Each structure stands twice: as structure tokens, then as C-alpha cells.
Amino acid sequence: VAGLGNYGLRGTRHSVGMEVLDRLARQLAVAEGWRVDKRCCADVALATAHGLELVLLKPRRFMNLNGLSVASAAEIYSLGPGDIYLVHDDLDKALGKVAIKLGGSARGHNGVQSCISALQSNEMTRLRIGIGRP
After folding, report:
1. Whole-number Cα distances in Å, 17 to 51, 57, 92, 132
2. Whole-angstrom distance, CA of residue 72 vs CA of residue 37
3. Where are the domains of the chain?
4. pLDDT at 17
5. pLDDT of residue 8
6. 124 and 118 Cβ atoms separated by less than 8 Å
7. Distance (Å, whole) CA 10 – CA 116
8. Is 14 an annotated catalytic residue?
9. Which residue of the set 14, 50, 88, 109 is catalytic?
10. What keywords is this UniProt entry annotated with (predicted)?
11. pLDDT(133) > 90
């Protein structure tokens, strides 16, 4: 589960994916387990939920390069594109509205496009978090 955003710019609308992962880590009781993984240039926490092993990932890059971290982590943890969930902001959704998208185009989102390019696939499931237009 990759929370897309601009690392170092916490609290901004475009880093909502990372904020969601912080909340998920707290709910899964692994919030103290974040560690820097230099192999994929990301903060990583491992968790278990409903019998599934999860890799929580917050890339330490700007949004348009998030895919490099996601692809590296996929290789390290032997994950295919279909195993990956991207959590990211969506300007076209009202603030707080949530939608799931199964694969397809990036719809103009640079972080998602970066992941599609780096993984050479668009099969990732996306959790789109509405941030509304300014």
C-alpha cells in the first residue's frame, strides 16, 4: 500500500496519501514501526491485517518520482502491479470523498503516472481521496 505525495511537504493536499498511510499504521498498531529503507528510497512499515501481510510505503521523493520508490519496493518484496494499492489525492473529487479505481489511466495524476511508467503497468488499484479544487 503506497501513499503517494510530496515527501517533506506534510500537511499539504497533495500529500494526503501519506497522511492516510500514517492513520492506517496507527490503526494497525505499527505506527512506531516506520523505518527508512534506502533500497527503495521510502519509509516502510510492515503490518498484518485479516491474515494478509502488508507493506506500507511512503516514498521519500517528490510526487512525479514516487513510482521509482514503488517499483523498487515491488521488486524487493516480490510484488506484481496487481498486488499494489496506490493511495492518492484527487482534485476532481469533493473534499473527503473517496473512490476506488481498478487500474486504467492516471487521469492526469503525476504520481500515478510515475507508478505506471516505473512498473510498466496500469493494473494497480487506486484509492482516490478527494481534495477538491482550491
Report:
1. 24, 10, 15, 14
2. 10
3. 2-130
4. 95
5. 84
6. no
7. 24
8. yes
9. 14
10. Hydrolase, RNA-binding, tRNA-binding
11. no
Residue 99 pLDDT exceeds 80: yes
**Which cell goes with 23?**
492513520
pLDDT digits 0-9 by tens, 27-57: 999 999 999 999 999 999 999 999 999 999 9
* Domain 2-130 fold: Rossmann fold (3.40.50)
Give the sheet arrangement for strand 85-90, strand by strand. Answer: 35-37, 42-49, 52-59, 2-3, 85-90, 125-130, 98-102
- Can you give the three-state secondary structure of the chain, one letter per residue? CEECCCCCCCCCHHHHHHHHHHHHHHHCCCHHHCEEECCCCEEEEEEEECCEEEEEEEECCCHHHHHHHHHHHHHHCCCCHHHCEEEEEECCCCCCCEEEEECCCCCCCHHHHHHHHHHCCCCCEEEEEECCCC
pLDDT tens digits along 3-23:
999 998 888 888 999 999 999
Widest CA span of the chain, in angstroms?
40
